[in-house]
DNA sequence: AAAAAAT
């Protein structure tokens, strides 16, 4: 029996204890009457959401008398899904009549101030909600009233839009209702996750009060446990070997000898068989190798039976799979200069969308956008390769919204309508990020989006889908899950986007993608985007795309990039110290590790050195993942240590240093990790740490990535580290 | 190895 007993099928490491710990934390740390997301009327003060009988009883009586009827009328369908404010059509519609009046009178002044005020409102509202959930719920029924007063402020930004709407009859209907909605949607977007949010909110206050301590306690003990476990194991084993084990060992053989004989009769013949079997296996293997199908099977058998074979074959198989260089797709190279003069408007996008793009900072199209918008509007299947940070999200998002809008022209947006478009991403963070952009575009023309991804309760997502959304953005697992449950109808989806399409075509993603693509309309338009788009997408292209247009942007080479690449050849014993000195700087630094465990270890190491750092990897719960990424975005920490979950697509402004604590195995991974810096033309540095043994592999990988990077030998404290971090050497001397 | 569903 191994020393570390783990439940069968359990994960090797779990940094977010999901079972007992969560419930005990809920019971132990929650105080009666404290903000809670629990249902009202929980039985005991120790339960979340407990409310004393006296509070609710009298109020309940009143409601049943008169208010109920009035409320029901006022709230309408809303009562079916209290949590989803963003989708409350009726309050909004009721408010619409009033809004225009207010808006017209006030718009000019508020336009300027409006933008600045929104954040303030959000902040004010959140605390209010976070103090008491129950009052919040009451507030929610009242909120429409507050919202009406608030909306004017919010809607002022919309006024230009509304003017636009006046130009477009279609937009007016949807637009007038939407923009206020948009404001709400921003909140709603948040509000879609009302329940999770409420959970978050209720958790946050807890954390804030107890929390930061609470969190730090949870983290440190865990980290301590983790760090201690290996240490103890290592220390204990030798010690035990020296003292007790030797005794045990001398004793055990004796016992074994006395016991085994009885058993050994059966065993020996078996052992003979076993010794023969490997021989046969070895003889058979060449035979099997001859048969094409069995090529893989002997490997698996070997792995199961023999650890040495396992190691050898595994690394061989690993290398077989790793870093396959696929043929470049034949693409029409779009010359940036030739399309530079076209505006978004010229490309066929409507005024509302163009205006929203301006608000997002996209005043004129980037090359990849100039290339793809028109063919997408024309309804073609499109494959597009644009390097990291080149604006791919808008390149597919804006024309997608425009097409969904055109497809709905003249139709009424019905309750519970099925989504018309689907955007798929490989990670939850990326899905969220895409939604932030696409949702704004959609809102500007009165369309709704919702996110469908795992790691959060389904309720809010299902509630949104029930009310009807136009564009679904999510990750494959939850989308399939909800579809199987009959809660997500993909049969009317006419446009599908695969972001990071080559990654979505890799083992593990390919089959879910195929299943999902088979559920949408047969003739649905397909859009495949990635910075490293190659023939790996062939499996999907051949089955699902019709005569696709393929685009890339001419002249995207390292020379036109703003990223400076460095490789440091180090001794393994210097690694920890070098990493600490690399992240000990002012700018935002993103550190990549190969494993979740190492990312946790590095966070602990940095914090021990007095450098605030957070982790991002798949063993954290979604709330923590989102929070930790947000803390980097907000600048509350400057160091994020992540696995490859953060390698693709994630945009954080101002990351000016990417450190690869573990070198990537694939050139594509190198490309995507590097692309977290140097975005939209900003400068950035990528540093990869390797040991001497890895020089050759690294050189080959950089060739495939078409990157030229100097290799420097570095030891702890070397000047080259100061040069990279931008610190002055004087600081080091002191 | 990691990621993507939940249990």
TrEMBL record:
A motif (Q motif) lies at residues 342-370. InterPro entries: DEAD/DEAH_box_helicase_dom, DEAD/DEAH_RhlB, DEAD_box_RNA_helicase, Helicase_ATP-bd, Helicase_C-like, P-loop_NTPase, RNA_helicase_DEAD_Q_motif. PANTHER family: ATP-DEPENDENT RNA HELICASE RHLE, ATP-DEPENDENT RNA HELICASE RHLE-RELATED. The lineage of its organism: Bacteria, Bacillati, Actinomycetota, Actinomycetes, Micrococcales. Residues 342-370 form the DEAD-box RNA helicase Q domain. CDD domains: DEADc, SF2_C_DEAD. This is DEAD/DEAH box helicase. Residues 62-321 have a biased composition (Basic and acidic residues). Residues 1-321 are annotated as: Disordered. The keyword Repeat does not apply. Belongs to the DEAD box helicase family. It comes from Microbacterium aquilitoris. Keywords: ATP-binding, Helicase, Hydrolase, Nucleotide-binding. Residues 373-551 form the Helicase ATP-binding domain.
